[in-house]
Design brief:
Oligomer: single chain
Number of helices: 9
Strand content: 5-15%
CATH class: Alpha Beta
Shape: globular
Order of helices and strands: EHEHHEHHEHHEHEH
Radius of gyration: 15 Å
CATH architecture: 3-Layer(aba) Sandwich
CATH topology: Rossmann fold
CATH superfamily: HAD superfamily/HAD-like
Strand order of the largest sheet: 3-2-1-4-5-6
């Protein structure tokens, strides 16, 4: 697929931008809480010319715990919270599947379908983009899509502490949170 001209930062949502309250499966807009510094970090990406794209697995839909309307309501609430800090998301993509309920799919991370969809829709140059998330599967697509190891950044918020050892063993950058990830991205320009 041809490369575009825009650079992007692909962000996981739950545990990276917003708190992922136990037992997970965030689907109530009233429970959406930005993680400390997340809005300022996203605003900084917006101000420095990066496209900000959420790519998230939402297996709760496939499990029947909530529906796509609930996912959309959470996304609207996230947009409101970010807008209050002069920040925004340029696009969001989600996988509604769960392997046990739906079988395998190409869109569930670490699959790359949603990243390719974003690339095509937004004209993204994947070689100049970054992947940030709190799980190894959030950042693993960077390598699959030809990016350097330094373009995959694991944050230690959410589940990041659990996936840290695997990420470090694979040469992935590990930082405390989204603010620290954005510092690395912007400084690397």
């Amino acid at each position: 697929m041809p490369e575009g001209k825009h650079r992007a930062v692909f962000l996981d949502r739950d545990g990276t931008i917003v708190d992922d309250p136990p037992p997970g499966f965030l689907h109530e807009p009233g429970k959406v809480r930005l993680l400390p510094g997340a809005a300022a970090a996203i605003r900084r990406l917006n101000q420095t010319g990066w496209l900000v794209v959420i790519v998230t697995n939402q297996s709760g839909i496939g499990r029947g715990l909530y529906d796509e309307a609930a996912y959309a309501a959470v996304q609207r609430r996230l947009a409101e919270l970010l807008a209050a800090h002069s920040a925004h998301i340029d696009a969001a993509y989600f996988c509604p599947h769960h392997p046990d309920a739906d079988g395998p799919c190409d869109c569930r991370k670490p699959g790359v379908k949603l990243f390719r969809d974003a690339q095509a829709a937004l004209g993204i140059d994947l070689r100049r983009s970054y992947w940030v998330g709190d799980r190894w599967r959030d950042v693993a697509p960077a390598r699959t899509l030809g990016a350097a190891a330094s373009q995959a950044i694991l944050v230690q918020t959410g589940s990041g502490a659990t996936d840290r050892v695997e990420a470090e063993a694979r040469g992935t950058t590990v930082v405390p949170d989204l603010s620290a990830a954005v510092d690395r991205i912007v400084q690397g320009e």
